[in-house]
Amino acid sequence: MNTIHERGRLGGTRWWRLLLTTALAVVLGTVIAACGSDEPTATPVPAQPTPTPVPQVQFPEREIEWIVGWPAGGGFDLAARTIGDFMGEELGVDVVVRNHTGAGGRRAVDAVRRGAPDGYTISIMNMPMQLMAEKLDPAGADFEGFEWIGQAVRQENIVTAPKTASFNTPEEVAAAEPRICMPGLAGHNFLVAAVSTEVMDIPWKVVSGFAGGADTRAAMLRGECDISWTVANPQVVASISPEDDFKGLWVYSDERLDWAPDTPTVAELGYPELGGPKLLNSGLVAAPAGTPAAIVKLIEDSFQRALNDPDVVARLREGGMEVLPMSGQATDEAVGGMDSLLTEFTDVVKARQEAQ
Amino acid sequence: MIEAFLEGLAQLGQPAAIAAIVAGTIVGVLFGAIPGLGSVIAMAVLLPFTFGWDAYIAMFLFAGIFGTASTGGAIPAILLNTPGTIANVCTTLDGHPMARRGEAGRALGLAAMASGLGTFFSIIVLAMLLPAAKLLILAFGSPEFFWLVILGLVAVTLASRDNLVKGLAAGGVGILLSLIGLSLVFGQVRFALDSEFLYDGLPVVPLVVGFFALSELMVYTSRGGSIATVGEGLSQPGIRQTVGGALEVFRYKRVLLRGSIIGTVLGAVPGVGGAVANFLAYTTAKQASKTPELFGTGYPGGIVASESANDAKDGGILLPTLTFGIPGNVEMVILMGAFVLHGITPGRQLLVHNLDIVWAIILGVIAAQILTTIIVVSGGGFLAKISLIPVRYLAPIVAVVSFLGVYAIRSNPWDILLAVVAGCIGYLMRRAGFPLITFVIGFVLGNTAERSFVQSLQVSEGSYTIFFSSPISIIIIITILIFAGSPLIKYWYERFTAMRKAKLASR
Question: What is the reported pTM?
Answer without folding.
Answer: 0.74
